[in-house]
Amino acid sequence: MYAEERQQAVLRRARTEGRVDVAALAAEFEVTYETVRRDLTALERRGVLRRVHGGAIPVERLGFEPALTVRDTVMTAEKERIAKAALAELPEDGAILLDAGSTTGRMAAQLPADRELTVVTNSLSIVSVLTPRPNINLLVLGGRLRPRTQATVDDWALRVLEDTYVDVAFMATNGVSAERGLTTSDMAEAMVKRAMVRAARRLVLLADHTKVGNDHFTRFAGLDDFDCLITDTGIAEGLAEEIRAMGPRVVLA
Asked: Which residues cross the membrane (predicted)?
């Protein structure tokens, strides 16, 4: 097994079980402890695991919030499929909201060129993608910029959202579970997300399967607020059924 294949297997195990142990991995893959430690270090540098004594934990379990530039390099194929599937939820014309996030950013890049749309966003990275597009009427929410997520937050953004109403909001999240709904790591971003939820006629959540079943610091919405969850085929069937029972359609991309 090549190192990259082994590291992907380690990451899958960590996300499934919540933790991996150096000794157990060395025995399973028939490699030395040092080889396993190098694998864990490589995965930590990619921002997907955090080293702990004797092993590692996926960042989703720690409530750690990787930078957008790091998140955009993880689960890339799944995020591309989710973004493409989300295009089916677009209105023929009218206004949409794109929340700040790596998957919503990929959706922005795939918006059709032959459709006139008003796009409201608090994401500087999405702004940079959509600025050259002549068919997009781009409205940018102001506020304090969080460099880690390239999202605007706080009062300026909240005041504009009070008077905003869009056809569909495409939302991002750090975690989603049947128990706690949608959660994120930062209180300021949670406040903006709550305002976005109130500002939309329909709500579509874009979240790869590593987000499903995880909870973070601050809750900003319930699953029953949402019309649809678009995720990837890596989601456990039991988790998908739990979410369907709460109300949203679940689309597997």
From this structure: none
Structure tokens at 200: 């939309």
Can you tell me whether residue 156 is helix, strand or coil?
Answer: helix
Categorise residue 111: left if φ over 0, alpha if ψ from -120 to 50, beta otherwise.
beta
Angle between helices 33-45 and 22-29 (to 10 degrees): 110
H or E element in which residue 64 lies: none
pLDDT by residue for the chain (253 residues), tens digit each?
788 889 989 988 888 887 899 999 999 999 999 999 999 988 887 777 878 778 888 876 655 566 565 556 567 899 999 999 999 999 999 999 999 999 999 999 999 999 999 999 999 999 999 999 999 999 999 999 998 888 999 999 999 999 999 999 999 998 898 989 999 988 999 999 999 999 999 999 999 988 888 778 899 999 999 999 999 998 888 889 999 999 999 999 9
Supply the pTM of this predicted model. Answer: 0.77
CA distance 77 to 13: 19
